[in-house]
Amino acid sequence: MTDKQAVVDALGRLPDSASLAEITEELQIMAGIRRGQTDFPAGRSKSREEVEQILEGLAKGEQAIQEGRTSSHQEAKAKLARWLG
Predict the structure, then answer these.
(1) CB–CB of 34/3 below 8 Å?
(2) 55 class by beta-carbon count within 10 Å (0-12 exposed, 13-18 middle, 19+ buried)
(3) Angle 3-13/20-39 helices, nearest 10 degrees?
(4) Fewer CB near the last or first residue (10 Å), C or N of the chain?
(5) C-alpha to C-alpha distance for 29 and 44, rounded to whole angstroms
(6) What is the pLDDT of residue 84?
(7) Structural domain total, the chain
(8) Which residue range is the domain that position 23 belongs to?
(9) At a CB cut-off of 8 Å and minimum separation 6, what does 22 contact?
(10) Alpha-carbon distances of 30 from 21, 52, 59, rounded to whole Å
């Protein structure tokens, strides 16, 4: 099925009252799935462990923000000055 045919098929499944935002979301999801279908066989994907590490890092970052353990750009630059040259 071509991309155009897939879009026409997806639009046909949506109710006539679907908003432009809903249509856009449906097409973005469909495009993501299609990218995944080509990326995975080509080796352009992450293992479950890699995804878990990424999500763990994001969760730690969110927790640091909530606890106020963050630095401004200038503060970070000053702290890292000896390594940045």
Answers:
(1) yes
(2) exposed
(3) 140
(4) C
(5) 18
(6) 82
(7) 1
(8) 3-84
(9) 14
(10) 14, 24, 27
Residue 36 tokens read as 């995944």
Cα(85)–Cα(76) distance, integer angstroms: 14
Strands, DSSP E only, in the chain? none
- What parts of the chain have a pLDDT lower than 50? none
Total residues found in the chain within this entry:
85
Give how far the C-alpha of residue 26 lies from the chain's centroid of Cα atoms, to the nearest Å.
Answer: 16
For 39, the enclosing helix (H) or strand (E) is helix 20-39
Structure tokens at 51: 């995804």
Q: Give the global pTM.
A: 0.52
pLDDT of residue 13: 95
What pLDDT does residue 82 have? 84
